[in-house]
Amino acid sequence: MSTIAQRYDVGGVLLDRPFKIRRLGHFGFNIEKLAEAREFYGDLLGFTVSDKADFSRAPWFPKDKGLGESHGYFMRYGSDHHAMVLFSKPVMDVRADRKFMSEVTINQITWQCGSLREITSAHSYFEEQQVAIQRVGRDMPGSNWHVYVYDPDGHTNELYYGIEQIGWNQRSKPRDMYYRGFREKPGLPQMSEAAEIADAQAKGIDIFSGNRPDVPTGETYDVEGVLLARPFKITKIGPVALFVDDGAEARALIRQNVDTLGLGAVTRVFRRDATKLGAAHPVEPFGLVFLDPPYRKGLAEPALAGLRDGGWLAADALVVVEEAADAGVTVPDGFAEVERRAYDDTVIIFLRART
Phi and psi (nearest 5°) for 255? Predict the structure, then answer.
């Protein structure tokens, strides 16, 4: 990777790179148990399926390998077309145009930028910096303009702009409008979203014929005055942590990734034992925490106690713990157990931090 020396005009401001990351976007996994994962993130956590992709229709799909379910799920909690994507790991492992390392189960980590020009400029920038590029263009479904790059550890990072918004009628963009997808770097300028809609209508496309999710049932929980199917509602993207080997090389890799993406101002890396976290201050407490300790090591209870005692949890924070079903997790004081669900040899425990 070459040394960064040039300054770039990004919306009238000179920056060290030709784009500015505005926020963490959507997230994706390559899943071994796809049906169970769709139930977990959909039925249990409340993500809505905006669209499904059927990879068995793709020319690269090997129909004689018995790969199981071939669908990918684009899921959302708000108006962005997708905040979570779930794909089959056996299917993704045979894609010639993707280079997922065998131990990497993260499909994508994404970062929203502020303009289409930033995306095309980022593509040129990554080429100059000799960063491995997966692809550039515009995805359908989702309509987001993008450039995908690999970090040195093999994780796929997407910089994107202009993701599709799902409105009051819950319908996504119809497949007949996918002709506006791109498999190459787009020329600038491109037509606006409003012009795309007018163009589709001129072609006789029913713009209201996209996918609509099933009507929800069992909405019996009063969540701040609204009846919902579960006693909580996910409302925003939270912090995401990636765990790597504890060593100088791993820490240097993290710092390099943060610098390349310009995320120094919004990234915190803690080198701590999760069972001995200490005080959170001056870090603001978190409203959503996932714990996935090594199974049957008795680590969940001390990790929960560390979160509680160190002030890491906001009032009424949701904590999700994954453990072996036979581990016999005992919930410590300071937490109210909401629900337990078993999946084969795994149990998922939902807790609320008591105020």
Answer: -60, -40
Domain assignment present for residue 286? The answer is yes
DSSP 8-state class, residue 215: P
pLDDT average, residue stretch 52-59: 92
Q: What are phi and psi of 317, to 5 degrees?
A: -60, 145
243 within some domain:
no
CA distance 197 to 199: 5
Residue type at 171 in one-letter notation: R
Q: Count structural domains, the chain.
A: 2
Q: How far apart are CA 291 and CA 26, in angstroms?
A: 20
What integer pLDDT is reported at residue 244 of this predicted model? 56
Token output for 264 = 């120094």
**Predicted pLDDT of residue 151:** 85
Count of alpha carbons within 13 Å of 84, Cβ hemisphere only?
23
| Segments forming the whole domain that contains residue 307 | 272-353
CATH number at residue 91: 3.10.180.10
One-letter amino acid at 60 equals: W
**Token pair for 292:** 């996935």
pLDDT tier at 197, thresholds 50, 70, 90: very high
